[in-house]
Amino acid sequence: AGCEKEPSSYMWIYILLGNMLRGIGETPITPLGISYLDDFAKEEDVPVYVACLHTIAMLGPMFGFLLGSLCAKLYVDIGFVDLGSITITPQDSRWVGAWWLGFLIAGVTNFLAAVPFCFLPKSLKKPEETNNDKTSFDYSTVIMPCIFQSQLIYPFLSDFYTSLKKVLSNRMYFTLLCCSLLQFSSFIGFLTYKPKYMEQQYGQSTSKSNFLIGLTSLPPVSIGIFLGGLIMKKYKMSIIGATKFAFLMSFLAYTIALSHFFVGCENHVVAGMTVSYE
């Protein structure tokens, strides 16, 4: 009866809250960072700068997979038990790696990387070379007062609803949004389940699966993003030109991705399941 008792640990709540705080801290980087680049950089340089931003963002998961590969080789209770008494190896299905060590290292790294932001000025002067047709928006004048002054919450929400309705009524933006949702959904599923697939189909350890994915999947994406920014800058593509370019590259990518359906191994030979006992 004791073996049938369900686990009562609530440690997953701490992981949930930690990831929620991490997401809140990371969210402003992309929308506000891209808006800043679009407002303050020269028009022909914006694609390269945005490409650099996304390229660096892709390098993070790559190092994360490599770090996860290293942590998976270490036993989960490292520092608390005598490793000489551990009789199983990372190749054993009962092995549990030090998954918590990656959160600790990444948390300290994020904290150190956030320190320089404290020394940035509150407001930045806009260069005179910036095109006059670009409209800049000072988020601090609207968002910050709304956080600290309750009487401004309602006007802010009203303006936000109006802006959101106007943005979503843009057919091109809405189509791009739906396309991005589909792309990221497939990409996340690819990264989530491919390590397990490699473990089951190709007999690889968790550590080696993470290492191979971090080394083969993410660097090509980073290179592609950076090259795309350079190509857009060189040919000075308009919105229509960039749309055609994105459509062509996506079509080629999906065509090549179809080859995954033809890659795999036969099912494992298991007596009584895939083959008879005889």
TrEMBL record:
Compartments it resides in: Cell membrane; Membrane
A Pfam family this chain is assigned to: OATP
Can you name one GO molecular function term for this protein? Answer: sodium-independent organic anion transmembrane transporter activity
Q: How does it sit in the membrane?
A: Multi-pass membrane protein
| Coarse class of the protein's main subcellular location | membrane
Mind telling me which InterPro entries this protein's record contains?
MFS_trans_sf, OATP
Q: Does the keyword Ion transport apply?
A: yes
Family according to the record: Belongs to the organo anion transporter (TC 2.A.60) family.
PANTHER family per record: ORGANIC ANION TRANSPORTER, SOLUTE CARRIER ORGANIC ANION TRANSPORTER FAMILY MEMBER 1B3
Name this polypeptide is given: Solute carrier organic anion transporter family member
Q: Show the taxonomic lineage.
A: Eukaryota, Metazoa, Chordata, Craniata, Vertebrata
